[in-house]
Structures
1.
Amino acid sequence: QKEVEQNSGPLSVPEGAIASLNCTYSDRGSQSFFWYRQYSGKSPELIMFIYSNGDKEDGRFTAQLNKASQYVSLLIRDSQPSDSATYLCAVNTRGGSEKLVFGKGTKLTVNP
Amino acid sequence: GAVVSQHPSRVICKSGTSVKIECRSLDFQATTMFWYRQFPKQSLMLMATSNEGSKATYEQGVEKDKFLINHASLTLSTLTVTSAHPEDSSFYICSARSAGLSSNQPQHFGDGTRLSIL
């Protein structure tokens, strides 16, 4: 059973702080990793994806991947109230599988 | 780029009605589309993988005769919930991935369809 684990939260941070969201996965053969943001009542929106070990930055967002530890994280710098949402970690496994395995999501609240 | 349109956004209908939901990739061709269901405060559950020109692959526990999927072109997949009952009420979301690229490419989601069966 391929699993993706996230802390359900809620995670609360003050406006302007760095929010750190974490995700672990069980399948060592996983090759690609995605972070989606989902506002309440809406569908998921792609934030970032990462394939290689290390950091990938896009604006205020940084994805970090450590395949040896089977760990992927998302950092949000200068957090804004509009960042308040549930963040879903998703993993695409090896072997040509097209399916994404989603974590249950971490609810982030950024307090003004 | 990578816009996925899903229609309708909301459906309210009586028990026993069949409901058709459309998913279109507007600015790219999608060999593969995915259908998910999400109950309140739960994560997405993959229902089926839809491949253009072939039969859909259903996840375990999803009734293929209940949830009919058609992927007739590279830009359109449809999900029909047949003889819907109140327990089918949920948020249905489609996603699509570009054709011709590896399975590592991201999936892009439609806006979802909120289905309420009375």
2.
Amino acid sequence: DGGITQSPKYLFRKEGQNVTLSCEQNLNHDAMYWYRQDPGQGLRLIYYSQIVNDFQKGDIAEGYSVSREKKESFPLTVTSAQKNPTAFYLCASSIGARAYNEQFFGPGTRLTVL
Amino acid sequence: AQSVTQLDSQVPVFEEAPVELRCNYSSSVSVYLFWYVQYPNQGLQLLLKYLSGSTLVKGINGFEAEFNKSQTSFHLRKPSVHISDTAEYFCAVSGSNYQLIWGAGTKLIIKP
């Protein structure tokens, strides 16, 4: 089955630790995205990548980092510099990076900082 | 800057009743408009989208939406809801730099 997988589903982290969230897609999509979702708010874009070895900051990139070494993988690292990292993180992909392209979402990772 | 407003954070409705979820946007240029649905503890799934052409757009699960350029609205409707429609619904509009601008979401609560 084609789709997007995110792991782990739940993640607990101590303050001051970096943590990496995994996102893999087998849809052969060029573009990939990371969003953060907080209760009562819409999705906020952290980073996006239009093609392998290229990525751009979204609206809330501070305290996060990404890499895009392979087409199918777009891991997100939440660093200790992120002041309030507890949130639901969603990864998405689309066939291209144009605004009219449908985005396909993974099931999400819920990160809790203890 | 472009923005999306979903006027209701929650909409309670009885099963088999009609429902309308409201979405307004601000933009001075042509836009693409989307409705996504999120079931509890899951990712989002596209319900429908408006790119061009007919202003009445039909989507999955019996939902439809109407693009109204003069009102800058893209309200989502369903004539008869089912308990399985319980979810959060997000409106989004195309922004600059290939990004989508998202509304805050509306939780649809189906009462038996």
3.
Amino acid sequence: EVQLVESGGGLVQPGGSLRLSCAASGFTLSTYWMHWVRQTPGQGLVWLSRIGGDDGSSTSYADSVRGRFTISRDNAKNTLYLQMDSLRVEDTGVYYCARSVVSTANDLRYWGQGSLVTVSA
Amino acid sequence: DIQMTQSPSSLSASVGDRVTITCRASQSISSYLNWYQQTPGKAPKVLIYEASNLQSGVPPRFSGSGIGTHFTLTINSLQPEDFATYYCQQTYRSPPAFGQGTKVEIK
């Protein structure tokens, strides 16, 4: 069974940093494109970043987080990460990791339960 | 980037009603479209993939159709557990993009 469990969320001041983790089980992380998606309070879903390739060297980011957020993964631990630096109030929200399917890199078929990040002074 | 536009943004319906939600893409995405359902406090859940394929375990009262730029999600005989927010998402090209959501409320 595919399972994704996020952790690492919490309260951080503007300008601070936080690292989210997404522990995967039931499949091998490196086989699939993995994504991070954010949902701000009362708002919709916004795609943030993705990672793929055997060595995880293929990455891309939304304009809103490029240069501040870094996606990575540890194949040995089967865990996905999102390093978030220079956080802003508008980064507040629930962060989901999601897994694709083999045939379509952007088909977000499986989701974690989400991790809440609050950026506030 | 491809933009996704859903309509309506919200609707009120009764148990047993048939509901239709529309999603339009700013350019052709072939059949590369997913529909998700989200209830409060939960992660989105895939209902339909590739525009018209029912995800395993999803009740057959849900159906999807469309190709190119115009897509619809239909819920036949709305059930109490179907009151939720529904999102479309194009899976055709990066960056993946979601519609703004349609909230289905109880009339």
4.
Amino acid sequence: DTGVSQDPRHKITKRGQNVTFRCDPISEHNRLYWYRQTLGQGPEFLTYFQNEAQLEKSRLLSDRFSAERPKGSFSTLEIQRTEQGDSAMYLCASSPRPGPYEQYFGPGTRLTVT
Amino acid sequence: DQQVKQNSPSLSVQEGRISILNCDYTNSMFDYFLWYKKYPAEGPTFLISISSIKDKNEDGRFTVFLNKSAKHLSLHIVPSQPGDSAVYFCAASADGGTSYGKLTFGQGTILTVHP
């Protein structure tokens, strides 16, 4: 068990470009979450998957954001037409069971939009 | 609206002394609370949690206290060690309904433990 992994760890992109991040949860964890963290703030919930089904999306997730979890394993988060306000740390977490139990976080992908 | 608040941005303590980190919440639907620790360039690491049916949970040097009437929880670290220096986040979750276990985090408190 190598924990939750995220790729890339850092991404610098120009405004208007599309970016895609990947998250590999702990194997057999059927619950997967995406959060966004900006400087000086705690992580904010973006979206949640149970297996391959996306069951909840935050209002923070504008139409430019899309997330998928094909086959219920890894997940991708895509941001289209990036804006400077998208600059943040994007965190992925997984959890092995239903309910409000602890989530295990990956190291995050730091996005900088110039 | 900030449903989980950590009003102290930073805390400095001497090695061996007690560290007390505080957290307040406003949403009465929250019934499960967690503390995470975060080092630079790493994701948050789970520390300890407490269900709303309890008022105290202890794990080694870490104890979390919950005061539901005051909507307040605290994390006690005794004794504090320099390796405890990190950002500490309080998080809350509402069981059932459509919350699906999503966590609502506070802003974090930077703990510095001096040797």
